[in-house]
Amino acid sequence: MFIQVYELVNQLSSIFNQAIAIKIAYTKLAHWYKDVEESGFKSFQTVANSITLNYRSVLNYFLNRSTDASAESFNAKVKAFRSQFRGVRIPNTSYIA
Question: What CA–CA distance (Å, rounded) separates 86 from 63?
Answer without folding.
Answer: 30
